[in-house]
Design brief:
By secondary structure, the chain is mainly α. Helices cover about 65% and strands about 0% of the residues. α1 crosses α2 and α5 runs antiparallel to α6.
Length: about 130
């Protein structure tokens, strides 16, 4: 199920008019298989508490200067559609709970790294997607 979510989600991302250019500039075509495998490992560790993922997901995102609120909202919206399509409701809920937390954490870190007031960053809530 994690494989289906990750591969389906990133297929959507790569075609998306807002997110596609960001991801396709950051990840070269020959790097996508490795990135997808790493994302499967990340979600395995995140949801199942496996030790498959080794890495630090935040630094690559900090290196994307154009990454902003609209990107996170679109990311979460596409992710929600993907997990709803591929997972039973309780699993989709678990995926979304983690995704919302991760997005909020990344948004806080990005604001802090840019010298912005991270106290003004409100969590993105599912009903607003």
């Amino acid at each position: 199920m994690i494989h289906d979510v990750v591969h389906g989600f990133y297929a959507e991302i790569r075609r998306d008019s807002l997110l596609g250019p960001v991801f396709n500039n950051a990840i070269q075509p020959d790097q996508w298989p490795g990135h997808l495998a790493k994302m499967c490992d990340f979600w395995s560790a995140t949801l199942l508490r496996t030790s498959r993922y080794e890495g630090r997901p935040l630094p690559p995102h900090l290196a994307i200067p154009e990454l902003g609120e609209e990107h996170f909202r679109r990311w979460l919206s596409l992710f929600q559609a993907t997990v709803t399509r591929n997972c039973p409701p309780e699993v989709a809920e678990l995926f979304m709970d983690r995704a919302l937390r991760i997005a909020h954490s990344f948004r806080l870190a990005i604001a802090f790294s840019r010298g912005q007031n991270s106290l003004e960053i409100e969590p993105i809530l599912r009903p607003t997607l």
